[in-house]
Automatic annotation (TrEMBL):
<dbReference type="GO" id="GO:0006950">
    <property type="term" value="P:response to stress"/>
</dbReference>
<dbReference type="InterPro" id="IPR000719">
    <property type="entry name" value="Prot_kinase_dom"/>
</dbReference>
<dbReference type="GO" id="GO:0004674">
    <property type="term" value="F:protein serine/threonine kinase activity"/>
</dbReference>
<keyword id="KW-0723">Serine/threonine-protein kinase</keyword>
<keyword id="KW-0067">ATP-binding</keyword>
<keyword id="KW-0418">Kinase</keyword>
<dbReference type="InterPro" id="IPR011009">
    <property type="entry name" value="Kinase-like_dom_sf"/>
</dbReference>
<dbReference type="GO" id="GO:0005524">
    <property type="term" value="F:ATP binding"/>
</dbReference>
<keyword id="KW-0547">Nucleotide-binding</keyword>
<dbReference type="InterPro" id="IPR051180">
    <property type="entry name" value="IKK"/>
</dbReference>
<dbReference type="InterPro" id="IPR041309">
    <property type="entry name" value="TBK1_CC1"/>
</dbReference>
<keyword id="KW-0963">Cytoplasm</keyword>
<dbReference type="Pfam" id="PF00069">
    <property type="entry name" value="Pkinase"/>
</dbReference>
<dbReference type="GO" id="GO:0010628">
    <property type="term" value="P:positive regulation of gene expression"/>
</dbReference>
<feature type="domain" description="Protein kinase">
    <location>
        <begin position="1"/>
        <end position="298"/>
    </location>
</feature>
<dbReference type="Pfam" id="PF18396">
    <property type="entry name" value="TBK1_ULD"/>
</dbReference>
<dbReference type="GO" id="GO:0009967">
    <property type="term" value="P:positive regulation of signal transduction"/>
</dbReference>
Amino acid sequence: MQVSEETNICATACVYKARNKKSGEVVAVKVFNNLSYHRPPEVQMREFEMLRKLNHINIVKLFAVEQTGTSRQKVLVMEYCASGSLLSVLEEPENAFGLSESEFHIVVDCVVAGMNHLRQNGVVHRDIKPGNIMRVIGEDGRSIYKLSDFGAARELDDDEKFVSIYGTEEYLHPDMYERAVLRKPQQKVYGVTVDLWSIGVTFYHAACGRLPFIPYGGTRRNKETMYKITTEKPTGAIAGVQKKENGPIEWTYDLPINCQLSVGMKTQLEAILPNILEADQEKCWGFDNFFAETNKMLERINFHVFSLPQATMHRIYLHPYSTMANFMEVVATYTFMAPERQTYFYEGHHYLINPALEVRALPKTTEQYPLILIGNEFQTLNGVSFKDPSSDYPRFLPSVNVIGDYTTAKNVLSAVYQTLRVTRLLLRCQEFILRGTYWLIESIKEQCRRILDKNSSVVSILNCLVNINNKTTRLCNVIYKGNSEVLDMEGQGESLWKKQSIRDIMSTCSHNADKERVLGLLLLEVTKEQDQIRQDTSINRMEHCLQKMQQIFKQFNKRRQQPQLTYNEEQIHKLDKLNLGTLAKKVLLIFQEEVVLIYQTALSQHAIRIRTIFEIQNHFSLVNGYTADGIRDLQCYEETVSNTLEKLSQHFQQVGLVHSNHSPVNSCTHEVKDDLVLRMLQLRDQMKTVTYEMEHNNSIIERLGVPSSSQGT
């Protein structure tokens, strides 16, 4: 084994990066220090035995236990985790406000799986913290987190207790903290649930980028207050911070707005944390409850939904076997839009939802390609919920202090990352507003074209029927000399009423063309704004500033490790501080005077535009209903005309038979009869044409849900 460099130092050992001389494989070698060898032999052997019996992807693997040359001291040869620990990930400036939702989900998944393996083997870890959760990158490019450092671990069943103290104070259960940190004698024993407290603190740290319980001056400077915060925490609280010396504790029951988790993920985590961050071991969840609830959280699949009326993005978490009806109910809780009013677009097309299907049938959504919720009524615009990052920008002190300046520079960089993150959210919101509006307008325009086509067909058929009816009436008058019994005046009156009713209905559609022109103008506006969004350079300019700041930050990191700066180095350091501050101000200026103002303007325009669009949409819905009524009346009118023509035909046949039995002198002339026959044939041909047109429009009637009364005509 060839040792190359030291990678980590803990209380009882040092970990080195090494390479197997035969295979070339990179491994981690844990070498115990003198303090470790002062422990009882059974305690020294405990970690070896623990690792030998554990075999899981989320637990650091033990390859061998070897002995050093002359001293014969035992060393552990373990899996090398090249990507550091969860703590090193959280210490990156970009994660100062917590991990992204996808990365946090991976952390929870890996920790829960690793802990489940420990409990199956009756092991309690006793020192769970971000520094003991190692990270590697899998073949698919995703993180894999592994529990490590089992120096404090021991075998313990659920109903067993222990009295020895191990752990790191920020993550210690309050009872253990009292004895180990405050050095107060007590006769308490501890169970496996002490690991749950540490997991709760770790999860909060991963979600928010900071510890949940912080006394004034820090966790290690104000230990009495730290203990007070953890033991006096109200039921349901998940964090407590003291902002002034001897000041009150500010309790919080929700995760902060500036963490990267969605409301859907926050809700699930907020249901778990209060039950494991519980000082009273009798009230604290057991591992069975913990595994049950976390596994429910991990099994849920999520869907991205952008609400166009509210201009907000939601992540909907549901069990894979939930139905579409469940999906719509959850969406309703976030958007206050009843399920029956919800309509969706996906990739530019209407997406019809069958409430009986399982949610697994929904298309795969992402942050870039969500389902877009439309609805049909105006709602209050909520927009993106965010905290103004300007309050997170610290100021450098004028004096040179390489350690203090490094901390300040790191906080400045963290604030810039957060500003960039919020900027992306605001721009994405504008993109979805315009994308959804474009799709909605195109859909309404298509609906308008269909209605105009229907109306045109109705008017054409109506005119044809009126023409036939007029000819039929004139023919009846010629033959029957105004005989009211034969003409059926009641039917004629109803026919006139139907005709007028249809004309009245069609007149209500006269504004359709105007509405379509308004939609065309709105579409031009949307297209223009989409081009402006594509040409926006705010993110590029912010990223350019960030790259320069990262280079300066690297120099700050180097200087903090130097014992003292030379005069020239100090001057360069001062210039770097000045440049870092200037770049940070530039980023903040772009955000406040460009990004936010453009976003607010976009929201205002969207409020006006979406109200107009919904008014037009509702107008066309009414017109569609009127058209359906017109088609019903047209069918009735067609039946009336058809009946009149049928009666005329029957009477004509009867008259013809009678006249054939009379002498030629008293009957109608042959020429008159031929003329009547010809006109009847013409009317029948025209009626066949109308009937064909009516049957051709049956598809329109069926789409409108109107029962056709002339299908047998």
